[in-house]
Structure formats: C-alpha cells, structure tokens
Write a sequence for this structure.
DNA sequence: TATGAATGAGTTTTCATTCAT
DNA sequence: TATGAATGAAAACTCATTCAT
C-alpha cells in the first residue's frame, strides 16, 4: 500500500480535494471548485490526475494511510498509559473527527461509497478496520491470554462500537457522542470483567 | 406527522423513487430515471411534486413512517415471545434491510443527508430513533424497575448498538452482520446481568 | 371592432391577464399564473380561449377599446373646459397610466409587440392613435380653420408628443413626466401662436 | 465605464447576441441560438459569460458605449456644419437605427427592460440620454446665452423629441418617421425663434 | 365549464473531459 | 506543468397544449 510520490502541486490538489469531498461527497463535488481551492484551473487537474475517479481514489488512499497511522499511534499511547483496552481510541475519535478532514472523508466515503468505485473503497476501509482490530486484540492480550474464539467475539464487538461512534460523529452533537461512548465502553468493560 | 393523500400516480412515483434514492442517493438520482420507472415522462413528475426536493422529502417521510411502524411492531412481538430486551430488532434488522427499500433509503439518507434538506432529515430520523429508544426502555422495565439514570445509559448503549448494526448492513456481508449482532448483544446481556 | 360577448369566467381571465401581460410582457407571462389569478387551473383557460395568442389578442382588443374611449372622452372634456388643444390628454396621461393596467398593457404591447402577432398589434394601435389625431384635429379646428397641410403637420407633432410622453411613463418618474409634458406643450403652444 | 477586454470568441458572441436580443428581446432569445450564430455550442458560452444575465449586461454596456460615441460625434459634426441645434441627430437617427443593431438593442432594452436587471438598464440609459442633453445644450449655447431655467426647458423638450423619434423608429415606416421629425423640429425651431 | 394528468419541446445551467498551445 | 476554449451529455425545471372525465 505504498503511496505515490506526488508533485507539490498534486499534493495541493489532494489537500483541497479531501476537504471538499468530505463535505459534499463524490457526486456533489465539482472539479472546478477543487481546482480553485488548489489555486489552478480545472483543466490543470488533468496534468496531475487522469480523472475525477483517479483523484478520488488517490485522496482516499492517502487519507486511509493517515488515519491508519493515527489508530496505530493511539493504541501505542494507550498501552503506555495503562488505559483499558480500546478506551483511548473511543475517547479521542470525536476530537480527531473535528480536526481531520481525512477522517471525515474516510467515514463518509466508507459508509456510502460512490457506485463507480465501491470495491476499491470497501476493501480499503476493511484494511483500516483490520488495523483497529489488530490494535484492540493486542491490547486485550496484554492483560491475559484468550481463546481465539473469545478474542474474536470481543474484537467484533469493539469494531461495532467504533462504527457506532463513527455514526454518532456524523449526525449528532459532541454531548451525545460522549454519552454513547460512555455507555458502550461500560458494556465492554462489564462484559470483560465477567471473564475472570 | 400525517401523510398526505397521494393520487395513485403520485404513489407510483414514490415507489419508484424510494428504490432509486436508496441505491444512488439524492445527488446521483435523476428525475428522468425515476419518471421512467414510474411509467411516465420527466415533466409529468411536476404534476405531482413541486421539485426534486419536495419529492425526496415526501418519500422520506413515508419511509420513516413505515419503518417506525415496523420497529413498534417488532417490540410488541418481542415482548409477546419473551425475548431478551432489544434482541428482536437486532436479529431482524438484516432481513428487513434486504426486504425494505424504505429502510435502505432511510439509513442512507440519515447518515449522509443531502445538504439542501439536512434539518428535515435529521429531525425526522431522531423521531425514528426515539421510537427505538422508547421500545427498548419499555422492554427493560418489564423485567424490573430501573433508576432513570441507569435506564438512560442502557438506552444510549442500545441505540449505539442499533446504529452499529445499521452501518454493518450498509457495507458488510450477512455473516459479518450476524457476528457483530451476536457480539454486541452479548455485551449488552452481560452488562445487564450484573445489575441484579 | 365589436368585442365578443364573454362569459363571466372569461372576463375574469381577461382581467387577470391584462395586469400580468402589462407587467411581464407576452413572453414572460405564464398561463399558469394567469389562471391562478383568475381562480382556476391552467387547463380551464382553454375552455375560454383557444391559445395564449388568442387570449392575448382578445385582451389587447378590449384594452384598446377602453383606452380609445378614454381618449375620446378626454377630448370632449377638454373642449367643454376651454383648455388649449391637446392639453387635457397630455396632462392626464400619467394619472391614467398608473390607474389603468389596460393602458400600461397597450403601450408595452404596441412598442414591442410579440413577433407572433405583430401585425395585429400594430394595426390596432394605429387605430388608437388615429383616435388621438382625430380628437386633436377637431380641437384645433374649433379655434380657427387650417390648411390641410398645416393641420397634418401639427397632428404629426402632437402624436409625436403623445408618444414621447408614453415613453416617459414607461421609464421615468412622475416629476420627469411633468417636466417633459410642460416643455413639449410649450413648444406646441409657441408654434401655434405664430400662426396668427 | 470602461469595457472589459474580451477574447475574440467572446466578442463574436457579443456580436451575435446584440442582433438577437435586438430582434427578440431578452425573454424570447435563447442561448442556444446565440451560440449557433457565434459558431459554437451552447455550453461554450459559459466559458465566456457567467450567465444569460451577464452576457446581456455586457452586450448592453458595449452597445451603450458605442451609441453614446455616435451621439457625441453627431453633435460635433452638427456644429461643424452650422446646422440648427439638435437637427443632425434627429435627421440621422433613422438611418442609424437601420444600420446599427446596437441602437435597436439599446432602445428595445431601455423601453422594456427585463425585470431581472431593470436597474442596471435604466441607469445606463440615463447616462446615454445625459449625453444627448449635454450635446444639445452646448449647441444651444453656441447661438446665444440662456438662463439655466430656459435651457433646461428646451433640453427637456429636445429629449422628448428624441424619445418620440425613438418610438417612431420602432413601430413605423421611414416616411412616417420623416414626417414626425419634420413636425417636431418645426415646433422646436418656432419656439426658439420666439426667444430673440 | 372545469380539471388532473400527461407530454414534447424547450429553457438555463453544470459537469467531466479533451485538446491545442 | 498549466490553461483557455470548446463540447456532449445530462441535470432540474417551465411551458403551452391536449385529452379523458
């Protein structure tokens, strides 16, 4: 999953595009506006990207790489601070969402991918979620050892929680997000506490 | 929230539109195609609906009403069958999703509402979720009585679970859906079991 | 130039149409809006008029008849009051213009007739102007007798003055109208005074 | 009132548009036909003008500038040839009208401006008329000196005459135009002759 | 006489894309 | 690498008109 080397201009286009796609989605985004934001004319985009699709995919892959790194670093921090498994990410997602156009873009795209490139989007997002699952499983195993089966169940549950929070980010207030995060983490911790 | 009386032709348009909107979303849906599906020409749509927006809103409200009724009936059935609180809906959502264009449309719309009518969409979907919350709380209270605060936490968690399943419906396989449903319901039941 | 007998409904349509045509012109007027104003649906118009053109022509002819009558009565009043020839009309045109949608409609239509019916419009308006000319010539001849040639020159001038005032009505303020009327009538009176 | 620099293609569009607008007016002109006349497709117009309104305004301003220049040059010529004040313009307007689509367009537009841009049209035409007034006043003052008040009255009258001739251009024959011009100029000269 | 439904032709406008420069 | 110009296709929407009821 290596990213292409892009020229400085192409990078500016990506930066402009990620915010635009995040806000309006694929269909309602116009190359014209993206080009303006990047300080060039529409036609010039084609010097950098073969098509709207190609630009979208490139932006998507860069955003995925970035958010995957964010998740990894989050789990590292969590284990350093002795937080309960999966808590760090759940508690920092809201902040990340408002700070990162990339995350907003990834979520919007993953949930409702443009028909033209649905397979690419879906498989990419699955890799992102695999990263989350991986981080969570490692955190769980730091505590004690689990049967594969049990581990899988908790991993499924945790991914479900994260997706639930993703949704809350997209259509609710910060307060509602906090309530949901608290409630779902409580379920998780309660259930884990029964496994002793 | 009474629905308008629509003429037979207008109803045919709604039926055609709900599937189209569910599959392609607002932006990528064309009135031309919807009209064809409804067996008329584009211009004829305007005898029934003032604009694309107006059609979309009408369809959305009808879909919401229908899915709200489905949820209500689900909770009624659950209590009749002695199922654990909230299980019926979680276990039937996938089937419903594949059977009901209305549900697919509602979820797609709620998660990524078209900018033009975001407020209408959001407030409508909140009412739908309130119905879910209401059903779940009543189911919980059939078992034993709860402090308001505890009840609210479990309601938040349950809505989170439902949203999580919504997401899984949109981008995953039936098998993955089942795994997630099992895992999250286990968390819920485990946590509730600690409240004795 | 007899007018048709119209049913009460058809008359209501004419009344609605004259204001609409006067304000928006032929092209920018929509039968839909005219029908609404007349308290019926668009399709019902066709029970009364064969087409948009036919409605327009009917309205035009009624308006012309009405304004022709107004001019006649004006010249009658003028001679009764001993006013200088042509003064009454020049001085009452502004008031009439603001009170009569028919006059506004006639002027708008005469100056820029819709291509489809230009000949009808033009010949109709010429008859209206002939009425003005006739009234003015008679008023002149009440004073003393004129050579045909002289009479024709003054009649041409007077019609020119009236058209000039028509224009001022369409695009200027009442104050500007008054200044122009005063100035042109002064020219007329000065010139007539030289004929003794 | 500087005019934009337009590309050759944009100029071709303007040239095509002025004739079309002059003949059919704003509402009945279609961008499709204008584009054909300019040798391009409809969509290409938008590379040069942001909208139908913008094109119309641009064309209008160019036409106004051109006709203002024509009037100025006319008054210059008049004073060179020793013609009576205001005669040159009155006598050349008909010829100009048939030769200049710009003049036809300006008059049509000024008399019945499209609702969307009425203020722009009106204020522009007033400047044009100010030019006429200015030229006439200077011509008057070459003969002898006038009280401000008298000057204003004759200026009002002269503008009235010009508007009257404008109207005659739009709906009458060349012969009728000549009769009217003769008659009105006679009034003007008679009245001026009384001021010695 | 009135109307709901339908429609063909037309409108302005947007868009992704191409190409010569 | 950048862009001005051009374009085919499609969008939403409007309109005068027809017709069965």
């Amino acid at each position: 999953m290596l990213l292409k080397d892009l020229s400085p201009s192409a990078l500016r286009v990506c930066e402009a595009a990620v915010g635009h796609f995040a806000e309006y989605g694929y269909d309602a985004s116009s190359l014209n506006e993206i080009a303006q934001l990047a300080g060039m004319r529409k036609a010039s985009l084609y010097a950098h990207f073969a098509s709207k699709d190609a630009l979208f995919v490139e932006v998507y892959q860069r955003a995925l790489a970035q958010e995957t790194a964010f998740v990894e670093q989050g789990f590292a921090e969590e284990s350093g601070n002795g937080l309960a498994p999966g808590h760090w990410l759940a508690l920092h997602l809201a902040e990340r969402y408002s700070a990162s156009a990339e995350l907003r873009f990834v979520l919007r795209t993953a949930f409702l991918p443009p028909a033209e490139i649905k397979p690419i989007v879906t498989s990419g997002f699955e890799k992102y979620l695999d990263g989350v699952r991986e981080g969570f499983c490692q955190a769980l195993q730091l505590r004690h050892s689990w049967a594969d089966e049990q581990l899988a169940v908790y991993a499924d549950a945790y991914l479900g929680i994260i997706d639930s929070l993703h949704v809350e980010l997209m259509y609710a207030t910060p307060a509602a997000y906090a309530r949901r995060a608290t409630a779902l983490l409580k379920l998780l911790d309660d259930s884990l506490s029964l496994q002793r």
In short: The two ends of chain D are 40 Å apart (CA to CA). Chain D has a mean pLDDT of 96.
